[in-house]
UniProtKB/TrEMBL annotation:
Pfam families: Lyase_aromatic, Par3_HAL_N_term. GO terms for molecular function: ammonia-lyase activity. Residues 5-80 form the Par3/HAL N-terminal domain. InterPro entries: Aromatic_Lyase, Fumarase/histidase_N, L-Aspartase-like, Par3/HAL_N, Phe/His_NH3-lyase_AS. This is Histidine ammonia-lyase. It comes from Oncorhynchus mykiss.
Length: 555
């Protein structure tokens, strides 16, 4: 019998499904019933049937239509999150797109809710088109260039793509009419989102195939999705929301499809997620340092002056240097992304920064995997092998470490720069291309792998703490430990581990680890160090001098 793991608030619930033709709405209500069953006050939920909720995939946060059947949209053992509809909409606010001030953070937040005027194009640029066929020329351009393949972008990513295209067109440099721009805005506000395949761009004259699919839906052709209609013919989705298809005027087809908006929108998500995981990686490394009884003297200006332990392994004592350069790489990439977001990129050719981002952020996973090895290896940790009692009967974190190693190995291949490759296209008129679309997609995959590896390290480090009780670590790290234990129980004996990894991965995606620790970082910055030396979270093992509490670290 298929089963699905459903996340409600801070709990994960296994929900079996006898009939895969049941709907997502049924799955949500069934999970809510299970959630309230063992709560003394029903979890604050008075009547399950009156709850209005939004269902979304845990992986990628893609929205799920309540009327869709489970067999059509989920695989066995998929993870789903249920969020109260009011809560899901409470963070919405108006954002004004002026073509100049949009940031990568704004763009990612928007996604979380649910030359050819009288000539041809490319090789046909010298072919003159009669005036009475100019509208047909623009429509044919969009139709013929809608040649992408693969899975569609999620609704969230398509919203980002549409928002970014609106922002660029709002600058007024691309030859678009206000009427067409207003209809695009209306479609965005109604979340009427075109079917945009993720593959098909080489980054020559921009993301021609994906942006053509985006425009095709706005023309009322192809497929479209909205929360109200689900997937349907674009014409009917627009009609269901009282909207009219755009009618292309001279140059408008070209204006809609020339640009780097898919590269940039996916790149914005990659850089924002990279920034979030990088600062949480510092905190996770600090917990591992404590569990392995590492010394923090290596982080002081007078390293080892009063320390018996001469050196820890590089993965511990050099963590600030490695993490620091990753942060520099992310900052560099974010500046380029924010410039690109607000640029009229009608005919771009190269986009290499996302290759740089993937290589940089991968280091967080590479060094994390080595720390996981130290946690699991009893000769290095002085802890039970694979962090579990009764080894042999139980395997503990043995295969979780293998998973981390496999993700790091995949990243090594994904970090090969796509920008070093170029294939001539369009009959050699576009004979040097950026491959920026693949750079953006693989950068996102690298970041996701980094998140998952660090989720495994956080799980392993918290499990290590169990073997060192009753000793306690510092206050902020104890708060992080409590956060992890709110969603994952200690590993007493072997059990199904994937939900644990997914639950902690969700904590990292929601930046809850950072939110728990941030107030202490700010406090330590003010109280422990001069203003000119902001503290690194990797120095969390330093308690305030007056603290009498025992710590795990032995120095």
């Amino acid at each position: 019998m298929p089963r699905y793991t459903v996340h409600i608030r801070d709990e994960w619930l296994a929900v079996p499904c006898r009939d895969p033709t049941y709907t997502i709405q049924w799955l949500g209500y069934e999970a809510l019933k299970r959630y309230t069953k063992n709560k003394p006050d029903n979890g604050g939920i008075n009547a399950v049937k009156d709850i209005r909720f939004v269902a979304r995939r845990c992986q990628g946060q893609g929205l799920l239509d309540g009327d869709d059947t489970i067999e059509d949209v989920l695989e066995d053992n998929d993870f789903v999150e249920i969020v109260h509809k009011q809560h899901a909409l409470s963070s919405l606010q108006n954002l004004f797109l002026d073509g100049n001030s949009l940031t990568s953070t704004d763009l990612v937040n928007l996604g979380r809710v649910v030359y050819g005027i009288t000539t041809g194009f490319g090789k046909f640029a010298r072919t003159v088109i009669p005036v009475h066929k100019l509208k047909e020329l623009q429509e044919n351009l969009v139709r013929s260039h809608s040649a992408g393949v693969g899975n569609p972008l999620s609704p969230e990513r398509t919203r980002m793509l549409l928002a970014l295209r609106i922002n660029v067109l709002a600058k007024g440099y691309s030859g678009i009419s206000l009427e067409t721009l207003h209809r695009m805005i209306q479609a965005f506000n109604a979340s009427c989102l075109s079917f945009v395949p993720e593959k098909g761009t080489v980054g020559a004259s921009g993301d021609l195939a994906p942006l053509s699919h985006l425009a095709l839906g706005l023309m009322g052709e192809g497929k479209m999705w909205s929360p109200k209609s689900g997937w349907a013919d674009a014409k009917y989705v627009l009609e269901a929301h009282g909207l009219k298809p755009i009618s292309l005027k001279p140059k408008e087809g070209l204006a809609l499809i020339n640009g780097t908006q898919m590269i940039t929108s996916l790149g914005a998500e990659a850089v924002e997620r990279a920034q979030a995981i990088a600062r949480q990686a510092d905190i996770i490394a600090a917990i591992t340092l404590e569990v392995l009884k590492g010394t923090s003297k290596a982080f002081d200006s007078e390293s080892h002056r009063f320390c018996d332990r001469v050196q820890d392994a590089y993965t511990m004592r050099c963590c600030p240097q490695v993490h620091g350069i990753v942060n520099d790489t992310i900052d560099f990439t974010q500046k380029i992304i924010n410039t690109e977001i607000n640029s009229a990129t009608d005919n771009p050719v190269s986009f290499t920064a996302l290759d740089f981002l993937a290589i940089g952020v991968h280091e967080l996973a590479a060094i994390s995997e080595r720390r996981i090895e130290r946690l699991c290896n009893p000769s290095l940790s002085e802890l039970p092998a694979f962090l579990v009692n009764e080894g042999g009967l139980n395997s503990g974190f043995m295969i979780a470490h293998c998973t981390a190693a496999s993700l790091v190995s995949e990243n090594k291949v994904l970090c090969h720069p796509s920008s070093v490759d170029s294939l001539s296209t369009s009959a050699a008129t576009e004979d040097h291309v950026s491959m920026g679309g693949w750079a953006a997609r693989k950068a996102l995959r690298v970041v996701e792998h980094v998140e998952q590896v660090l989720a495994i390290e956080l799980l392993a480090a918290c499990q290590g703490i169990e073997f060192l009780r009753p000793l306690r670590t510092t206050t902020p790290l104890e708060k992080v430990y409590d956060l992890v234990r709110s969603v994952v129980k200690p590993w007493i004996k072997d059990r199904f581990m994937s939900p644990d990894i997914e639950a902690v991965h969700r904590l990292l995606l929601d930046q809850k680890v950072w939110n728990v620790a941030q107030p202490y970082i700010e406090k330590y910055n003010m109280e422990l160090l001069p203003e000119s030396r902001p503290i690194s979270p990797t120095a969390f093992s330093l308690d305030p001098p007056a603290s009498p509490r025992k710590r795990i670290r032995l120095e």
